[in-house]
Amino acid sequence: MLTREMDSFPYPFKGEQYRYSNNSVPMTRPSSIEITPRYTEEIQLKRNLLNNYPERCFQTMPHTLKGQWEAVDLVTEHLAAFFPSQFALQKNGDHWTFENKLLGEAFTFTYGDETTIPYQPLDFIGRHVQEDLIFMLERDGDLHLDAGQLCFPANWSLAFNLGMRFKEIHHPIPGFKEEELDERILRFLMRMEAGSPWERLNWSLMAGNKLDTSLETFHEWGKERKNVTEVNAGDLVHLRVEVQKLFRLPQSNGILFTIHTHLLAIKDLAANRDWLQQFYHILKELPEHIAEYKGIALYQKPLLSYLKGKLT
Amino acid sequence: MTFVPGKRKYLICGDPSGINLVQPIIQNIMEQHLSFEVMEIKDEEKVRNWLDHQKMGCYLYVSAAWPEIERLKNITEDIGFSEEEVQFLGRGEQMIKVFCCRCHGLTELARSDASEITCSQCGLLLSVSDHYSSLRKAYLGYVAKL
């Protein structure tokens, strides 16, 4: 891995053990988007997935267009403000021009008019950012997953989860409901206000280095879990970290989640002695239900042996 | 089914055997001189119309064979009854749908058979979970064997 990538990797661990928690913190640099050296490669991958598997990667409820446009507004503003040498945005009333200088593309459209852009609004802007974009709408006193562009999911299905309430989405996570985390996080999200964005990190382990680990293709990529040995764990297993950013959209009163996924081979993680030590302790102590849900159980032992070998 | 006290009016809806099963609750309502109406499901439009014209504060009991329950659920959702305002009692074998994690195809089967099934669309062996989507009206089927 490139040194600059290592330096900016969102290392997620604190302390000597890991438990589920609401680890959201107020954002210090309130950009919904980050651009990494892998931009061009990942955008190409995203666009290929969207073109080849549209039902897997993009789903919306019909009442979300207004919220989707708001997401376009937020994301294009951030791109132009935080990355002015790569993006530009000109607004002349509802007449907007968005320029992606990295890809040499420019679009002129009428804000609020879907016929002036090539895709639905969220799908349109999502094709310019490495992040997955999830739009949750507040209705019936609950948050519903009502639109999303999802190319790099951590083993879940947007097509199945569409329209679900927050707690329904998280139903499969063992221990999540029992510890009332679903209720606490939902209340936290419902209290979120426009102009005060939050972010959190979520992690899991992957056997392999694919970003597009959808539930729909689990029968293919999931098999790698069985191939992990003490010898190949450093190359094969990757720490997968999602930087999730949360923005309340004032007009629709929805919440936009942007999810930027990063992968780090365990051998690169192990090159940092502090990370190696901390990760080893956390993995060794990880409760069974968390290891199972995060897809680690099948190769936890060979991975621990690999890490132990690196420590001695 | 349980009697929920303190409602302005009680609505009972079902097929004849179903209404019979709600008799203990009807008894309870009558003893307390509470307002209620009973409607037999014969004509769906009539039931829809009847439910549509009810005022706030009603509590609904629906008791029928499972296929009827599924249809009535759609109607009560459409009209705007919340989950807290309705109790359903299904009779006989309940059919459920399973959403294939690979191809999104739906496979219908009896709830009592639901553990592992073969997707009727792509043939993948699925393990049926308890993760339910109200939009798809189906349970998620995961890859059963890697």
Automatic annotation (TrEMBL), chain A:
Pfam families, sorted: HODM_asu-like
InterPro entries documented for this protein: HODM_asu-like (IPR021848)
Source superkingdom: Bacteria
Protein name, entry field: DUF3445 domain-containing protein
UniProtKB/TrEMBL annotation, chain B:
Molecular function, one GO term: monooxygenase activity
Top-level taxon: Bacteria
Key words of the record: Monooxygenase, Oxidoreductase
InterPro entries: DmmA-like_C
Pfam families linked: DmmA-like_C (PF22289)
Domain Dimethylamine monooxygenase subunit DmmA-like C-terminal span(s) in chain numbering: 97-141
Protein name: Dimethylamine monooxygenase subunit DmmA family protein
Phylogenetic classification of the source organism: Bacteria, Bacillati, Bacillota, Bacilli, Bacillales
